[in-house]
Amino acid sequence: MRWVVFVSMICLAQPAMGESTVHILAFGDSLTAGYGLAPSDSFAARLEQRLREKGRAVRVTNAGVSGDTTGGGLARLPWSLEDKPDLVILELGANDGLRGLDPERMRANLEAMIELCRKADTRVILAGMRAPVNWGLPYKKHFDAVFPDLASKYDLPLYPFFLEGVVADNALVLDDGLHPNARGVERIVDGIVPLIEAELDSLRS
What we know:
Blueprint: H1 2-13, E1 22-28, H2 30-33, H3 43-53, E2 58-64, H4 70-81, E3 87-91, H5 94-99, H6 103-119, E4 123-127, H7 137-154, E5 158-159, H8 182-204
Parallel strand pairs: 1-2, 1-3, 3-4, 4-5
Helix pairs in contact: 3-8, 4-6, 6-7
């Protein structure tokens, strides 16, 4: 009897028979790449496992590059789109903020990436970022407003802050105080999965 229950639980966690696999591209910087972590603990890996445990037929590609800015992302996005993802999680901007780069240039880069995804018939979830306070309040306000503004302009699902619930908790970050540890990645996945599932449902409708 226990064996039957165990098999039933496994079946419930598997994608439905005949359901086509959705390709999700996790496109970002070190926060996506899994800086300082084992590959199996990266955001892309943990997200894929979580969604598959929920019965979703997905493949999540880790397209994170440590140190990347929105300018670097724009330069390499066309190559990443050649793999024809169905959905892109666009997570860039943290390094722009750390370097104090022009928020208007960041906006232009993100907008260009959104346009490239649209031309490729690829949906986008925009992952927001917040600027550090050391560049001053005017810079921070300008920077932080870019993500909701673009989400509104392009009618995109927005995860307001990729590091929500992580960055202020020392138990969830590496010793550098910036990058999530394995537990921090799980917290990010916890937060963003409902938004991703809603988008997956809309892809099927």
